[in-house]
Amino acid sequence: MTISLEPLPYLKDALSPYISEETVTFHHEKHHAAYVNNLNNLIKGTEMEAKSLEEIIMLSAEDASKAAIFNNAAQVWNHTFYFKCMHPNGGDEPASELVSEIEKYFGSFDEFKNQFKTAATTQFGSGWAWLVKDKDGSLKIVKTPNAATPMTSGQKPLLTIDVWEHAYYLDYQNRRVDYIDVFLSKLANWSFVLENLK
């Protein structure tokens, strides 16, 4: 099966003024698309060609000889998930069901946001910050470098923010903290997070 570039769940200008149409276009049509194209070229004619994206990630994660396959496959998955984590009308108050679950593990919704922001801010270089459901059912915040994804550790991603510079540099330059603040307060798709939790 060919891995395809999933369409954005909104128009390219829908996240403006918080994330510009220019950034979304470059991010989706250049960076994300390049990972899709690279992956299809890498798996062409191999046993991986018949696998799902998730299967490719899991099969290549611990195999150093398949590092290029893993990096591109994980980035395809991470980006598809990231774009769904934002919504033009995001950043609103989450459903009480989600807030209750978050409060159980972080004390308060504000404390969760503080910890998530810290993880995203302190991820050195390129990478991701995530809210995940761990193997024991608890909620945790983790950060991963480069293409790494929590699914290879048996964790279920609920929310992520991309802190590779291409995600925000055209709009925020070196102000990663401002981008993270806007993501949480104006863009985060809490309905999607709740769907993932369920």
Topology, please?
Blueprint: H1 21-43, H2 53-60, H3 67-84, H4 96-106, H5 109-122, E1 127-133, E2 139-145, E3 156-162, H6 169-172, H7 176-187, H8 190-197
Antiparallel strand pairs: 1-2, 1-3
Helix pairs in contact: 1-3, 2-3, 5-7
Structure description:
The chain is mostly helical. It has two domains: 21-84, Fe,Mn superoxide dismutase (SOD) domain (Helix Hairpins, Orthogonal Bundle), CATH 1.10.287.990; 96-197, minor pseudopilin epsh fold (3-Layer(bab) Sandwich), CATH 3.55.40.20. It contains eight helices and three strands, in the order H-H-H-H-H-E-E-E-H-H-H. Strands 2-1-3 form a three-stranded antiparallel beta sheet, with helices on both faces. Strand 1 and strand 2 form a beta hairpin. Helix 1 runs antiparallel to helix 3 (67-84). The longest helix is centred in the N-terminal third of the chain and has 23 residues, at 21-43. The radius of gyration is 17 Å and the shape is globular. The two termini are 29 Å apart. Residues 4-86 form the Manganese/iron superoxide dismutase N-terminal domain. Destroys radicals which are normally produced within the cells and which are toxic to biological systems. Its cofactor is Fe(3+).
> What can be said about the biggest beta sheet?
3 strands, antiparallel
Q: Please state how the strands of the largest beta sheet are arranged side by side.
A: 2-1-3
Low-confidence stretches: none
Amino- and carboxy-terminal Cα gap: 29 Å
Indicate the proportion of strand residues: 5-15%
How many structural domains does the protein architecture include? 2
Query: What is the class of the largest domain in the CATH system?
Result: Alpha Beta
The average pLDDT score comes to 95
Helical proportion?
Answer: 40-55%
CATH-defined topology of the largest domain: minor pseudopilin epsh fold
Could you say what the CATH architecture of the largest domain is?
3-Layer(bab) Sandwich
Q: Can you tell me the overall shape?
A: globular
Rg estimate, integer Å? 17 Å
Estimated structural class = mainly alpha
Give the total of beta strands.
Answer: 3
Distinct helical segment count: 8
Helix and strand string, N-terminal first?
HHHHHEEEHHH
GO molecular function: superoxide dismutase activity; transition metal ion binding
Cofactor: Fe(3+)
Enzyme class: oxidoreductase
Catalytic activity: 2 superoxide + 2 H(+) = H2O2 + O2
